[in-house]
Design goal:
CATH topology of the largest domain: Beta-Lactamase
Number of domains: 2
Order of helices and strands: HHHHHHEEHHHHHHEEEE
InterPro entries: Cro/C1-type_HTH, Lambda_DNA-bd_dom_sf, MLTR_LBD
Radius of gyration: 25 Å
Protein name: Putative transcriptional regulator
Pfam family, one: MLTR_LBD
CATH class of the largest domain: Alpha Beta
Distance between the termini: 38 Å
Domain HTH cro/C1-type: 26-98
Strand content: 5-15%
Structural class: alpha+beta
GO molecular function, one term: DNA binding
Number of strands: 6
Length: 292
């Protein structure tokens, strides 16, 4: 397994100079807000500017004075993810400020702040409840926390009654999922690959580690697909379900980040429209073929 480098490769090269300037300005303004006495610097005489001096900031952050000066001078340099992390801690940044610092530095945070725990904002729950079409909210383990009446009606065995709320446990362990999803084999493969991509940096967390271990023990299909190492970005698109009345109903799925800085997802299903038409797509369901 390759070592994690913390290098973010998606930053456009054309913006490097502007990014370095923004990084320099951001770090300088935060340094000037720090209290020298709170960091053990008691000689407050002859200070021409507020906050810590550059050499003091470098000392607190565990960086060389030269390197820190280069940061504020917007020089071209290669900061490691660990150095950015130390700088963020020394500056006392909030989670949002820390994320901004890493973005400006062109690095991925190896230890991002933990997402806010549920329950979600009341406004989000009310928004979902008021939607006419199926909608639900997943937490970082892909367990449903909020859903509306339309979702409970569609997702029988998952969002109705006292069912298992974790999406993966429903898909891999509940026979109701096979009846609900006509293309169950393909959908489980894709969903698990999306789950791996979404949670890869957090799989050591107890909740996720326990979920994966339990599914490995309880579902041979999950174990086989997990060992296959499939990885896919979470995509929207057409989703088909066998409704309670035996009719195949098609929806366009849209997934959005529900809460800033967290891993909570709002999933919405809009009725699909036939090519050139205005009506939702629906078709009778006659069950799987003998050769399936």
């Amino acid at each position: 397994m390759e070592n994690y480098t913390g290098i973010k490769t998606t930053m456009p090269h054309a913006s490097d100079a502007a990014r370095r300037r923004a990084l320099a300005d951001f770090v300088r303004t935060r340094r000037e807000k720090l209290d020298p006495a709170a960091h053990g610097f008691t000689d407050l005489r002859r200070r021409r500017t507020p906050g810590l001096r550059r050499e003091e900031m470098a000392q607190v952050a565990g960086l060389s004075a030269t390197w820190y000066s280069w940061i504020e001078q917007a020089r071209e340099m290669a900061l490691s993810a660990s150095a950015v992390s130390r700088l963020a801690q020394a500056l006392g940044l909030s989670p949002a400020e820390r994320a901004y610092l890493f973005d400006l530095a062109g690095r991925e945070d190896p230890h991002p702040p933990a997402p806010d725990a549920f329950p979600p904002h009341g406004a989000l729950a009310r928004l979902v409840a008021g939607m006419p079409e199926p909608a639900y909210v997943l937490d970082g383990t892909w367990t449903a926390q909020v859903w509306n009446a339309a979702a409970a009606d569609l997702f029988r065995g998952w969002l109705d009654g006292a069912a298992e709320r974790n999406l993966l446990r429903f898909l891999f362990l509940d026979p109701a999922a096979v009846a609900l999803i006509p293309d169950h084999a393909e959908r489980t493969r894709r969903v698990l690959a999306e789950f791996r991509a979404d949670t890869s940096r957090h799989l050591a967390e107890p909740a996720l580690a326990g979920l994966v271990a339990g599914l490995m023990a309880d579902s041979p299909l999950f174990a086989r697909l997990w060992h296959a190492q499939g990885v896919l970005g979470r995509e929207g698109g057409l989703r088909t379900f066998c409704a309670a009345d035996g009719v195949i109903r098609s929806f366009e799925q849209v997934t959005l980040a529900a809460l800033p800085g967290g891993r909570t997802k709002l999933v919405m299903l809009a009725p699909a429209v036939a090519d050139g038409g205005l009506e939702p797509v629906a078709a009778p369901f006659f069950g799987p073929s003998e050769s399936a």
